[in-house]
Design goal:
Blueprint (H helix, E strand, L loop, with lengths): L43 E2 L17 H14 L15 E2 L4 H4 L30 E6 L15 E2 L8 E12 L5 E12 L11 E6 L7 H5 L3 H10 L1 E2 L4 E2 L4 E4 L2 E4 L13 H8 L16 H4 L15 H12 L3 E2 L7 H12 L10 E2 L5 E2 L5 E2 L6 E2 L7 E3 L22 E3 L9 H5 L13 H6 L6 H9 L2 H13 L1
Parallel strand pairs: 1-12
Antiparallel strand pairs: 2-4, 3-7, 5-6, 8-9, 10-11, 13-16, 14-15, 17-18
Length: 481
């Protein structure tokens, strides 16, 4: 995307929520914190377009503007195989660029959601899914010929490791007032294994659709002590809620996990993404992801040499800078009466106990992967609608539950990090779809709420008993974020 198209209208727009004095609100109102001037402090934008996630913060200028543009290009531009200068793609890979899965820094529409629900890739057996597939043995160990990620794409002359196949089962439900809704459960299998077929009874497979790259810099600048305090304070036995931290080891240091669906990473995984997703070697991951595979060990594959590193540390830091310097869209329609009612319903359903509205960043901001400081991210009051903690989202009962049986750090299969909701209302505008949750099984906001189990069960049940008018208002509020 041309950098000149990216712009930010920064201003001081203070939205005051007078929850107890608005005509038409429910008689019994809940006091909502006032303020919310800027979703992400000085890194807030006021766009309502496809660029809402993909626009630099206002403090990007001078040398940082040049580096931002460099990182943007490295993020978006399709990579080619290693026999082309600047390529490095493959031999096997899951995406051909960061932007291939994170279009406009959002969530590329997964092609397995085809209109007839047959779960193919949308363009034949070698099409692109934009979904990340984790595979392990049932005991959690990896398959030597495959590793932790199934690479379903490959350069010419190399076989993809396998192909994802999805089938769907649908179940209809009723709200107490008679309105129907439907939940769709995906069933994943792997076909076209490049080597020996792995039997279904030996395989654990779990799938992810891309996360929105909204507020990545603010997330990295969060004060760990505040998150840990939330873990100690977020114990609401009357609602069955008790969030906890995930701790991981990064670069030999045990630290708080903050990024990823299960808070399984302490950074933005730029280096890991280049390596595991694209097969691009770098200083942290110098070996090809398919090293040891029989098809690569058979002499010099297609005349390619795998001796050199495909991307430099400086280039990866430019990508890190790009991601952390993206601005966050502001709230919209904040004076709309339906949105105000929906905000009341959000609090009434206790959604805010996990989707915490207000957090703060460290005074010094963040440090990028090669040592560059971003002090502009420091000392900000932000509104991500997340506590970034792990919560039990329920085991499968009556076919409903989000336990994928996949362990990440301390996170069990039924535990997921609270998804930040800022920017979620613009996903359809930015990416053309409303598939939510870790694997996109929820096709709209209603389904996303109704998939909540475990610690989300109480909020789901409160929402379920609301009138249709109030349910619609809560959805309108989510669309305003």
């Amino acid at each position: 995307m041309v950098n000149g198209l990216k712009y930010v209208f920064l201003g001081l727009c203070v939205y005051i929520f007078a929850a107890c004095e608005q005509e038409g609100l429910d008689a019994q109102t809940i006091e909502i914190p006032a303020g919310y001037a800027l979703s992400a402090g000085t890194a807030t934008n006021f766009l309502n377009s496809t660029f809402a996630y993909d626009t630099p913060a206002g403090w990007i200028s001078g040398k940082y503007d040049k580096r931002f543009t460099s990182g943007d290009g490295l993020y978006d531009d399709a990579r080619t195989s290693a026999n082309v200068a600047g390529g490095g793609l493959g031999p096997v890979y899951a995406g051909y660029s960061c932007g291939s899965c994170h279009r406009n820094a959002g969530r590329t529409k997964p092609s397995v959601w085809t209109p007839n629900g047959n779960g193919d890739y949308g363009s034949g057996s070698y099409g692109f899914s934009s979904m990340l597939v984790y595979i392990t043995r049932k005991n959690g160990s990896f398959f030597p010929e495959y590793g932790r990620v199934l690479h379903d794409q490959a350069i010419y002359g190399v076989k993809p490791e396998g192909k994802l196949k999805v089938t769907y089962t649908y179940q209809k439900f009723m709200f107490p007032d008679g309105e129907a809704y439907e939940l769709c459960k995906p069933m994943y299998t792997i076909t076209d294994w490049y080597a020996k077929e792995i039997k279904a009874e030996d395989l654990l497979c779990t799938v992810r659709i891309p996360l929105r790259h909204v507020g990545m810099g603010q997330m990295m600048a969060l004060d760990p002590a505040e998150i840990e305090r939330l873990a100690l304070q977020s114990n609401y036995p009357e609602y069955g809620i008790s969030g906890r931290c995930n701790y991981v080891v990064e670069r030999g240091v045990r630290c708080l996990g903050i990024s990823g669906n299960k808070a399984q990473h302490a950074d933005l995984t730029v280096e890991l993404g280049f390596s595991s997703d694209m097969g691009v070697t770098n200083s942290r991951y110098p070996e090809e992801i398919c090293a040891g595979q029989a098809q690569v060990n058979q002499g010099s594959l297609m005349g390619l040499s795998y001796a050199q590193l495909d991307v430099t540390t400086a280039e990866m830091e430019d990508v890190d800078l790009y991601m952390q310097s993206l601005s966050v869209p502001a709230r919209r329609q904040v004076h709309d009466m339906q949105v105000k009612r929906g905000e009341q319903a959000f609090y009434e359903a206790k959604c805010h106990l996990c989707h915490v509205t207000t957090l703060h960043t460290k005074s010094r901001g963040t440090t990028l992967l090669n040592g560059t400081q971003l002090p502009w991210l420091g000392g900000q009051t932000i509104h991500p609608y997340s506590d970034y903690l792990l919560h039990d989202m329920g085991s499968e009962i009556m076919g409903v539950g989000l336990n994928d049986h996949y362990v990440s750090g301390l996170a069990r299969g039924n535990e997921w990090r609270t998804t930040p909701l800022w920017g979620i209302g613009l996903q359809e505008r930015v990416n053309g779809h409303t598939y939510f949750l870790h694997d996109g099984r929820a096709r709209n906001f209603i389904e996303a709420i109704m998939w909540h189990g475990g610690e989300g069960e109480a909020s789901k049940n409160i929402f379920k008993k609301m009138s249709k008018e109030k349910r619609d208002a809560l959805v309108a509020f989510l669309k305003s974020l």
